[in-house]
């Protein structure tokens, strides 16, 4: 009997502790009262609401902390593409108390740069006197390559499946999925997620960070369930993901400034050339008109 009771108690304790796991963050520590927190630095922890995704800025801090303490982070994959992609990898960010990124980031060094609301660098690296304007990421393009499947995938059903998984996994409002393009032969799925430019409550970086981990490394979710898109007849899993960020103001990389400058020069030169032609054209017309008027007058005087 005693053994049975003991077993029962053990089972009960088991159930209780498993109830106290943090659904949205596998690295969280949860106490007996199911309050969960995440260690961010040597001296700070963040209490979590485990029914919500954890802000990316906190996650990056936790990841740096774990990396420095030789705990598993499995954050190997660095994005490879250029363009406006996060190819800096991880840094130790400074966060606001609500988990938003400060606009200036320095990675604990004298070298600083500007980041957008998703914490992605949007300027050249400068010294610590750099001035940064806040920039909100209002549009992200998620490019995924899916693993091969046995059955052909219908684009419309794929879109529905993607909207569902984004809502279920990341709590994304389906209305924000503005476009889904599918290239069957390239196995490429392009998902545009756009919010209102003035919207400061939706944070698109929540979804993108969890998604990058889901596809490139390992899920951050406690249950570790893989990212899969349900379409009729099969589940589609992803091979890779690439994320483009679009902010409410253009980034200020030197390269883009240069191309912008060149475009401006080209525009100015073309305007001058077109303007010149127009002036010539009108001058010619006026001369012709004056000529014919003069002719008409001559005719009048003759007659
Ligand atoms: C946690 O987040 C959920 C969903 O947004 C919210 O309903 C709930 O009140 C939050 N809990 C706490 C303790 O803040
Ligand atoms: C930030 O610093 C860490 C270690 O100090 C380094 O590994 C990482 O590459 C740096 N990240 C950036 C974006 O400079």
Description:
- The N terminus is likely disordered.
- The chain has 303 residues and is α+β, with helices and mostly antiparallel strands.
- The strands form three sheets. A five-stranded antiparallel beta sheet has the order 7-8-6-10-9. Strands 1-2-3 form a three-stranded antiparallel beta sheet, with helices on one face.
- The radius of gyration is 29 Å and the shape is extended.
- It has five helices and ten strands; from the N terminus they run H-E-E-E-H-E-E-E-H-E-E-H-E-E-H.
- It has a domain of 52 residues.
- The protein binds 2-acetamido-2-deoxy-beta-D-glucopyranose (2 copies).
List keywords for this structure.
transmembrane helix, binds 2-acetamido-2-deoxy-beta-D-glucopyranose, three-stranded antiparallel beta sheet, alpha+beta, single chain, signal, disordered N terminus, 303 residues, five-stranded antiparallel beta sheet, disulfide bond, Thyroglobulin_1_sf, 10 strands
From the N-terminal CA to the C-terminal CA, the straight-line distance is: 136 Å
- CA-based shape: extended
Question: Strand sequence of the main sheet, in spatial order?
Answer: 7-8-6-10-9
Number of helices: 5
* SSE pattern, N- to C-terminal: HEEEHEEEHEEHEEH
Name every ligand kind in the structure.
2-acetamido-2-deoxy-beta-D-glucopyranose
The pLDDT mean sits at 83
User: Spans of 5+ residues with little confidence (pLDDT < 50)?
Assistant: 3-17, 74-84
Radius of gyration: 29 Å
Strand count, sense and barrel status of the largest sheet are:
5 strands, antiparallel
Classification by helices and strands: alpha+beta
Number of strands: 10
The helical percent reads 25-40%
Residues in β-strands, percent = 15-25%
